[in-house]
What we know:
By secondary structure, the chain is of the alpha/beta class. It folds into 2 domains: 188 residues, Alpha-Beta Complex (Spore Coat Polysaccharide Biosynthesis Protein SpsA, Chain A), CATH 3.90.550.60; 79 residues, no CATH class. The protein is built from 9 helices and 11 strands. It has a 5-stranded mixed sheet with strand order 3-2-1-4-8, sandwiched between helices. Strands 5, 6, 7 and 9 form a 4-stranded mixed sheet that branches. Helix 2 links the parallel strand 2 and strand 3.
Amino acid sequence: MKNMKFLGLVTLYHPNIQVATDNIKRYLEYLDQLIIWDNSPLKDKVKEQVMAILTDDADRIVWQGNGENRCIASAVNFAWRHAQENGFDMLLIMDQDSEWQNFADYKRMIEEHWRMGHEWVFTPYFAGQPKPAEPVEVLRLFINSGTVIPIKVLQDIGGADELMPLDALDHDMAIRIQKKGYRIVKLADAILSHTIGAPTFSKHLHLKTSNHNAQRTYSMARSHMICLRKHHDWLTFQEKWMIIKRYYLRRLVLIVLDEEDKWNRIKMLIKGTIEGLRTPI
């Protein structure tokens, strides 16, 4: 079997340059090419600062960015087309704040499973979560960051649904992957640290909140409602309740109790929910 070609995709948005580049360095040397998809405003000069640090690897980096925040779905579809045109086998999706502990081991395990005929979608173990009892655990849903998707799987599902440009994109892709008959697995010995939002603890209930701003609150409410409607026949009752509790009920309680800009965030939560119910799918 020929050596597998790995393409990486990392999205940047107002990154801490040093943190983002340190994280990229942890996996870049193991990739054949990396697409850096910059959603930051041009005034931030992210490309100039990042490439000054990654200058030794410039020949393996494809930079995409025009000063607009085009989220993640467009980036995934660009990477999918680029992979098809250039003969890549696997796509690694990364977040700017995700930190690998052992990406080389992750890549090796993926290659071993693929050679055994396991045409799976792969995800790592996220540090801090309960440790899986087995080295390979079958999943129903995944988080984008750290996921490796075979290009043939992306082809079969038709890429990312840009109706959900950021939030719920991972859930939607995971469901469509399984509807096409593919398995999603977590490799317990591949370890990734990942932070969602700007987490803080509420003062009254001591609950952890992602503390997303009003616009992101809107995006989350809209996209997860679209996902619920689109896949209502596949999601279990428990999964539907988890989404409603996390992105609507719990979100509302935390905004009211402890977050700033309460009125705007509540308005955008309501607006996103209504638009998610009205959007044609």
